What does this fold into?
Amino acid sequence: MKFYIETYGCQMNISDSELISSILSKDQFIHTTKLNEADVIIFNTCSVRKHAEDRVIGRIAQEISRKRYNPNLKIGVIGCMAQRLGEKLHNINGKIDFVVGVDQYKKIPELIHNSVEKDEFLSNTIVDHSEIYHELYPTHSGKYNAFVTIMRGCNNFCTYCIVPYTRGRERSRSIEDILREVENVGNIGFKDVTLLGQNVNSYNFNNKNFPELLEQINEIDSIKRIRFVTSHPKDLSDDLIKVMADSEKVCEHIHLPLQSGDNDVLKRMKRGYTIEHYLEIVKKLRENMPEIAITTDIIAGFPGETDNQFQKTYDVMKKIKYDYAFTFKYSPREGTKAADFTNQIQEDIRLKRLQKLIKLQESITLAKYQDQIGKTKEIYVEKISKKSDKEVAGKSRDFKITVFKGSKNLIGKFVKVKITDAVGWTLKGESIQEIGDRR
Ligand code: SF4
It folds into this structure.
């Protein structure tokens, strides 16, 4: 049987889809990237915003029409929305064949076989707080950057976030299992790994913490670049900053969600840090790694956010000057604490605040990119540029897409590039030295 997976949401979901591909392939299923060839279509869903759920429900309805000329087609829903809604999804769309929660991915082959045999709706969303998918290695879909999950779940219960309810409590994978996976991806040619977790800074396995894990990954020969997401500011230690600065392969980039620039709002979000603490971390990061790029997530219009509190967020953004910020207007998620707060902000105000943040960040990002002109950067070439087949594109260590003249022979190689221009969110440059594949 051929399966097709459509993935929504964060990198964790992309990584889970790769894990599921591996589980299904071991059971003789064949992966296809063509919808019209598929016997099974799986939607790996996201619950983080209502809009994300509505979108996927619309997509499922579209694809279910395929059953008219392919009655044997099976359609399944997995991921956070599957975990959150479970069997209710069958009420939303009675043509869905199976629903599988985030801790039950090992059961997907069995569920598909049973669904074919019995021709009835099946669901398994049992929560298993110990499931870490030990010794199950994903089929990595990219060629250059591999996502490696180091932990699952979250214990933080930020009041706006659905993740702890859908993905369960935090648990870390064993260091040995992670190192094995990173070595494996290095051996098949990936040189850039991104370690994934809802809060990597609280990684802990048998008293080994995240900085210790990073140090060990830094020793793996075949891997040349290491990145990680997401870092929770409350758990970011001085040790981590030191290891980042001292480890040659750890890239000069950190994604550090701010969410709000006001202490009262942070408290009501249950973020566990103050703005003073956050600014102190940024200071230390920049002192230790002057070239570090810092990106963030920010929510505009959290319940009860006053004009003054919003202004503080705006001012902090101006002060920190992020390389990039993912800005969102607050969206209540049913089942979270903040959704029940009685002081919700009107939609038009949330939108206005969001637009203000977007505009500010656009000007900061533009200036940041302009600042790169004249610098020399190491680019890991990943592809031919979309705009010209005489140019290649890749990423710098500080996660900036850079385009320069070159042929496909450079793909997979590291090249020193002098930055000559910045066009929007893309740097342009000239190759000055090919470093090779750095093996
Ligand atoms: S740290 Fe907060 S925002 Fe991040 S996943 Fe956990 S609860 Fe959600």
